[in-house]
Structures are given as C-alpha cells and as structure tokens.
Amino acid sequence: SNHDRKYEPWLHTSIYLIPLVFGCIALKKNFIGPGTSFCFLSPYPTGSNHDEDISYIHGNSGIRNFSLIVLVYFYVIVIFAVALTTSVFFSVRRKEKENEGLDGLQKYRENARKSKSRKMALQTGLYFGTFICTHSIPILAQSGIMIHGRFNFQIYVLAPIMISIQGVVNMFIYQRLLVRKQPTGDPCTRPKMDSLEKRVSLASVSFKSEKEVEKQRPRSSCPGNMLSLKDQSEFSIFDGTRASEVWRSFLHESSQCEDEKPEEGTEAIKEMDKTNEECIRDVQLMTIVN
C-alpha cells in the first residue's frame, strides 16, 4: 500500500546506516580487534573483558556493554523478520477464506490471483529461511564469546561463509520463482509462422499440388488450341494489352472490320441523298408544268 511505501526506503536505509554507526563508534573507542570475524566487537586477547588479570590490547571494559547493544540490534532484526513473515502467511490465508464466498467473474479473478499470492508467500518464507541460516550462526558465535568468553573455532570459520552465500541463495530463489524464460530470438523481428498446411491441419483440410489438380480437371471436347494458364494470365480483355500471339491476329482483324464498316455506310448515305434530291426536283418540275 501507499502507507507502507512511505516507510520502506527508511527501512532499507537503516540496514546500512546502523552498522556504519556501530563501526565508527568501535573505531573511536578502540574496540576493533583481529580476534574474530566481527572485528569491531572483539577484545584482544580473547576473554580479556571477563578476566581483570588479563591486560587487553584492543577493547576496554566498555566493550561488553557495546557488544550487548549490537546483539540486541541483531535480535530485534530477527524478531522483525519473523513478524513480517508470519503476517504475510496469515494475510494470504485470510484473503483465501474471504474469497470462498465469491461467485462468477470475481471468483475467477481471485483464483487467478491465488497462485500469485501463494508464490509470494513461498518466496517470503524462503527468504526468511535464508536470513536465519546466514545470520543465526554469526549471532550465536558472537554471543558465546562476548557473554561467556568462549571461543569456538569451527563456528567462527562457518560464520563468514554463511554470510557470504546469502546473496547467492537469494539469487537462486529469485530465479526459481519469478524469472520466466524469455525467447532467444531477436525481439524486433517478426515471429516465424508455420506453413498454411500446418496451421490448417487441425481443421482436416487437405491441400493438393498443381499437378494433381490438372489431372483431376475434366478435359474439354472443343477442338482447337486451348489457351494455357500462362496465356490467359497475359491477356487482358478490357484494354487488349499484353495480348498473346493467339489473340493478336483476332484483335487485328476485328479492328480492320470495324474500320471498313463506317466507310461503306457513308457512301450509301450519299447515294440516298442524291436520289432524294432528284425526286424533289422532278416533283418541282411537275408542279411548274401543271
């Protein structure tokens, strides 16, 4: 929610600021020692803070109180992590119970979100387990040496190893639960589609080659040379362009016939006009004589 996002940056910032402050205080108070992996909390020699007869080189009587403050800080972090993880599991479970009474489209949507919420809860649990495994051993090792003055070499060797592998384990958890496999091809290119025969094969549609179609086509009984598919595609009946050799002579003869017909018609019309004029003249002469 927006309320949680307001405080989230401060939580992440405190993870880095508080250890930095502890390190600066340890450097100023001369608490830094090479005895353990937590060098800024280590008196040297080991156990000098519990025995007054042992003179210390690094760390004085105040290192005990300082180490307790740091340990309290780590315990608070663990308790905070446990509280957050538990709240996530309870909130997911409560939401699933509320969605049991839904019907229709709302139930379908919430069921789709159910898998995502469960995956988020699983991721939270794995992160919490990684946190406990990586920090519990260092905290126990430091608690033993600072409170009881006992030094366990095996635990102090294992402590920095566990802290170092936390990032690797978190990476595997993230890869396993969230990252999906992306296509290996170029995202800018168009996806390669199968042939039409493969895409329509589910509809039980069979495709035949051109040779099979020619064999199954009925033969025409009309004599004469038939135009091939190539000749038909080259001929345009609308304007006569791209005419083949078969049609060129036909077009030429028809154009000549059309050109001759208008000349014969004009001569006949002229003869008819002459006869009409002669008839008119004869009628006029007869009227004059009478």
* Structural domain count: 2
> Which structural class do the helices and strands define?
mainly alpha
Biggest beta sheet summary: none
Q: Please bin the fraction of helical residues.
A: 55-70%
Structure description:
It comes from Proboscia inermis. This is G-protein coupled receptors family 2 profile 2 domain-containing protein. The chain crosses the membrane at residues 66-90, 126-147, 153-173. The chain is mainly α and 290 residues long. It has 2 domains: 2-177, no CATH class; 232-289. It has helices at residues 2-28, 63-99, 104-148, 153-164, 166-177, 196-199, 210-216, 229-234, 245-289.
List keywords for this structure.
single chain, 290 residues, mainly alpha, 2 domains, 9 helices, G protein-coupled receptor activity
